[in-house]
Amino acid sequence: MSEPELSRRTFILATGSVALVALSAKVAGALPTQNRDISPLVLSSDLYASPLPQRLVLAVAVGKKYDSSSPAKIEIQAPESSETKVLDTKLYRSGLPQGRGVYVSEPVLPTAGIWKARLITRGEKVPFVLQVQSTPIGPSVGTLASKSASPTPSETMGVNPICTREPPCALHKTSLDTVIGTGKPVAVLFATPALCQSQYCGPVLNELLKIYKKYPEITFVHVEIYKSNRGVELSPTVEAWGIESEPWFFTVDGAGTVVGRLDGAFGREEMVKQLNALQSN
């Protein structure tokens, strides 16, 4: 099977922001023009200054196609610093689209600003940049999750459809405002299978549907990103949670505190890891 084509639109959206693409373009070129050019695609959309490790996720393009066939490391350099650090990555393929595995590392990013970075793979060092914000945009680990409602069949909150998956999934029976902070752990997936720009949302939801029944103690809720199939206006729940990309996966303990989060792209293995931690919390 051939590797999936990488469109220019997908490339731009994968980096998380137009500004970041512009900065990356100055370093490495916004889109590969030669057949075998290597390009790192930053899928993390909410990196922020913190003394704690956080998840950095990349996809890789070779030419105009995704490629996850080779091991990789990441070299990072803080703003206004000459020191560099090389990080190992873990390659995840299970539960992700064919040929579109992702590379995950856990750097410590204590300083806000534009970090220089290099993808080390196939004997090459490919420069790119990371935009690290001073504070997170979405809920971070250790903060309280929003107790806003989410659409259900009986109360759609103006969202139509409440699930763009075909057939619709069964994770819309419970509104988040009835379970967050009530003593029961909750797992929330924000994803729009029909409209997802990165095309990771559908596979992520399908993987979750394969495993959620193994965790009867946890309440699972899927929330669509948009109010309609026009893909313009965000759903009220997405606005309340303050997220600006898709997909996102949050685990929330019984007290309503966020204890885990994944964004950009993730498969079964990373979700299982977070669900196991939530269940034993």
Architecture overview:
This protein folds into two domains: 8-132, Immunoglobulin-like, CATH 2.60.40; 176-279, Glutaredoxin. 17% of the residues lie in helices and 25% in strands. Strands 1, 2, 3, 6 and 7 form a five-stranded antiparallel β-sheet that branches. Strands 5-4-8-9 form a four-stranded antiparallel β-sheet. It is an alpha+beta fold and 281 residues long.
User: How many separate helices?
Assistant: 5
SSE topology string: HHEEEEEEEEEEHEHEEH
Helix content: 10-25%
CATH topology of the largest domain, which one?
Immunoglobulin-like
The largest β sheet comes out as:
5 strands, antiparallel
Q: Note the beta-strand portion.
A: 15-25%
What is the annotated CATH architecture of the largest domain? Sandwich
Derived from helix and strand composition plus strand pairing, the structural class reads alpha+beta
Low-confidence stretches: 5-33
Shape: globular
Average pLDDT level: 89
Measured between the Cα atoms of the first and last residue, the distance is 42 Å
**Domains (count):** 2
Highest CATH level, the class of the largest domain: Mainly Beta
C-alpha-based Rg, rounded: 19 Å
Number of strands: 13
Strand and helix layout:
Elements: H1 8-14, H2 18-28, E1 38-42, E2 56-62, E3 65-66, E4 73-77, E5 85-88, E6 90-92, E7 102-105, E8 113-121, E9 124-132, E10 186-190, H3 201-211, E11 219-223, H4 236-241, E12 248-252, E13 258-263, H5 268-279
